[in-house]
Amino acid sequence: MKSYRIAVIAGDGIGQEVIPAGIEVLKIAAAGGGFACEFTPLPWGCDFYLKHGRMMDPDGVEQLMAFDAIYLGAIGDPRVSDAVSARELILPLRQKLLQYVNLRPMRLLPGISSPLANRTAADIDMICVRENSEGEYCGIGGRLHAGTPNELAEQTGVFTRMGIERIARYAFTLAAGRPRKMLASATKSNALQHVMVFWDEVVGGVAKEFPQVEYRKYHVDAMAARMITHPQTLDVIVASNLFGDILTDIGSAISGSLGVAPGGNINPERMTPSMFEPIHGSAPDIAGKGIANPIAAIWAGAMMLDHLGERGAHDKILSAIERVIGDASVRTPDLGGRATTADMTRAVTAALTDSEATKGTKPK
Ligand code: NAI
Ligand code: MG
Predict the structure, then answer these.
(1) Whole-number CA gyration radius for the chain
(2) What is the CB < 6 Å shell around ligand 1?
(3) Is residue 259 part of a domain?
(4) How far apart are CA 25 and CA 123, in angstroms?
(5) CA 113, 297, 175: angle at the middle one, nearest 5?
(6) Which residue's CA is minimally distant from atom 4 of ligand 1?
(7) DSSP class per residue in 295-309
(8) Interhelix angle for 341-357 vs 15-33, to 10°?
(9) What is the number of other CB atoms lying within 10 angstroms of the CB of residue 182?
(10) pLDDT 10s per residue in the chain (364 long)?
């Protein structure tokens, strides 16, 4: 039987609650799909930092190379500066593991009401391909003359032809395989006249390889507004690291809750393990209460199976999620209900088991 080695970094706060929920669902999906997942927990994160003075083992990246994929919860704790927790774990992993695509579906699932009035599932179905390895988050810069009136800080954005080309090509390929075949590029070439003019030139060049895809560019501020006023006009979005980070928070907000939005950090060439995570953080305000919505983590787990080549298992988990959300009887507080993480997980596993029992009949 095929078996996948999965490194699990549940991390901090609600990461410790939603990742076990996701694993429960993944195990059932694996059993139904005739494959196995072997989960190896790694204790990295802020608790680890408070004990050892580092966010992960010094050879963390080498350890991770032995796995087929990484399943990550969330990293962040009020006792540790976010600059430390993000910069010493998530960002280095994305960079060192060459996960240059950050893939974030933004869908309004049938049954959830969007904060946008009168929008239904048909209106909000986008996916963002965010550059994940360079750009504004490359980490180059510094501070000088700290604490003096001359103090200064400088942060450099780095854009390379190779980096833009490969993210654009991934995004166009994705768009070409979707029914609407549309790609919108987020730019700001009016104000960032060096890097964003370069971005436009390189993306425009790749566009010529994909005549079947309808390509448009929007300034990122206009795109942010468009996601609110005309979400139905957007399909695939390609964006730099910073722009994609911000736009996907809008995308998850209009999809009803951060608690349902998944993401993948992907190395398309499969030279390194890719990493799948809910896009939300550790939610210290609700951590430990057992009420975190596990859907984002479960959906991220499904994306991981898809990446590993188990499309069928991905589709089954997605339809189980859709059935539970569509039914509306079991909802965590972020979706206006009173259910717990465990209730919601149980509902998804029941829907999944049910679909296994009635193989061949398509769930609604
Ligand atoms: P957050 O995503 O943790 O929480 C924002 C709001 O959404 C909170 O009110 C929270 O309760 C709610 N929320 C998030 N996920 C939810 C879920 N699954 N179910 C129900 N409600 C949910 O963002 P915040 O508060 O800005 O950051 C908290 C910590 O997480 C910080 O340390 C931050 O650096 C870190 N963080 C980590 C990320 C990661 O690991 N990739 C991403 C974003 C933030
Ligand atoms: Mg973000």
Answers:
(1) 20
(2) 14, 18, 74-76, 82, 86, 90, 258-259, 277, 280-286, 292-293, 296, 332, 334
(3) no
(4) 29
(5) 70
(6) 283
(7) HHHHHHHHHHHHHTT
(8) 10
(9) 17
(10) 899 999 999 999 999 999 999 999 999 999 999 999 999 999 999 999 999 999 999 999 999 999 999 999 999 999 999 989 988 999 889 989 999 999 999 999 999 999 999 999 999 999 999 999 999 999 899 999 999 999 999 999 999 999 999 999 999 999 999 999 999 999 999 999 999 999 999 999 999 999 999 999 999 999 999 999 999 999 999 999 999 999 999 999 999 888 999 999 999 999 999 999 999 999 999 999 999 999 999 999 999 999 999 999 999 999 999 999 998 899 999 999 999 999 999 999 999 998 776 554 444 4
141: left (phi over 0), alpha (psi -120 to 50) or beta: left
Q: How much is the pTM?
A: 0.93
C-alpha 223/C-alpha 234 separation (Å) is 9
Distance 243 CA to ligand 2 centre (A): 10
| Residues 110, 326 contacting (CB under 8 angstroms) | yes
Cα(361) to ligand 2 centroid in Å equals: 38
Structural domain for 210, as ranges: 113-254
Ligand 1: residue whose CA is nearest its atom 40: 74
Q: Tell the residue nearest (CA) to atom 44 of ligand 1.
A: 281
Do 242 and 149 fall into the same domain? yes
The enclosing domain of 221 has a CATH number of: 3.40.718.10
> 232 near 112, Cβ under 8 Å?
no
The answer to whether residues 194 and 137 belong to one domain is yes
Q: Which 8-state DSSP code applies to residue 359?
A: T
Q: Does one domain contain both 90 and 127?
A: no
Q: Helices 220-229 and 241-254, interaxial angle, to 10°?
A: 10
Check if 249 is active-site.
Answer: yes
249 and 282 in a single domain? The answer is: no
Do 139 and 249 lie in one domain? The reply is: yes
Same domain, 233 and 338: no
Domains of the chain: total: 2
Contact criterion met (CB below 8 Å) for 135 and 192 = no
